[in-house]
Amino acid sequence: MNLLTLTPVDVASCAPEGLGARIERPQAEQLATLLKAIADPTRLQLISYINASNNAEACVCNLTEPLALSQPTVSHHLKVLAEAGLIEREKRGTWVWYSVNQERWQQLAKLFEV
Amino acid sequence: MNLLTLTPVDVASCAPEGLGARIERPQAEQLATLLKAIADPTRLQLISYINASNNAEACVCNLTEPLALSQPTVSHHLKVLAEAGLIEREKRGTWVWYSVNQERWQQLAKLFEV
DNA sequence: TCCTTACATAGACGTCTATCTATGTTCTAC
DNA sequence: GTAGAACATAGATAGACGTCTATGTAAGGA
User: Fold this and answer.
1) pTM of the entire structure?
2) What value does the mean pLDDT of chain A take?
3) Is A52 touching B (CB cutoff 8 A)?
4) Residues A35, B39: C-beta atoms closer than 8 Å
5) Which of A51, A20, A114 is closest to B15 using CA atoms?
């Protein structure tokens, strides 16, 4: 399964019941796609750094230095997160501002409800 | 980072504040290890199938057929989940019974709290 | 118009992962 | 103690992933 070729996912419809029932293959694949997006230390840090910034938004140039990664690498991870719908992208002039999609983030919590 | 060489993780200490603060590298790596364990469609299905079984436990031979996977492949995935502390293993005679570690599962929900 | 800055894309490379077949181990039954 | 059943481990292989360097694109300023 390729992370980058899959479309964003409606989490609420993927796992409306948490672990209450068997998860069948298509839903399991959609959920795994979403979880793969955050199952990376760099991307977890990116999300938390964005969220902890002023106005809970950050541009790429604010993230490369604290993470000690090249700009293309940061862009790559942000793209993965954006394609999973976990962050949002807004271009303002030369800068691109990223923010966490709080609603989608909270939807993920439903998977862990019993 | 190798999933199988890392020791289980205390989730509560990893992400006690959800996204409220920056996640630093060591914690990000521990969390990612845990998330990688469930960021796989087969393992998500295994967890849900185990949990939906009688007494919320299942042996390997109950899981190979519904998932259409070989026995060694199922064993491999169960090992990954067990090493992450997400399922527990109990040998009774010839059979080995696996069950979901509900407490740890719910701890993961804390990551998604705002 | 040209330069600089901010960001994205392309391509390459080493590592990790998911699966398989083959084999080992442990337990029960006869 | 031998045979069979249940499960684990080992080794191999194809594909995916994270990172980099190099390059492209778009916006702003002199």
Assistant:
1) 0.85
2) 84
3) yes
4) yes
5) A51
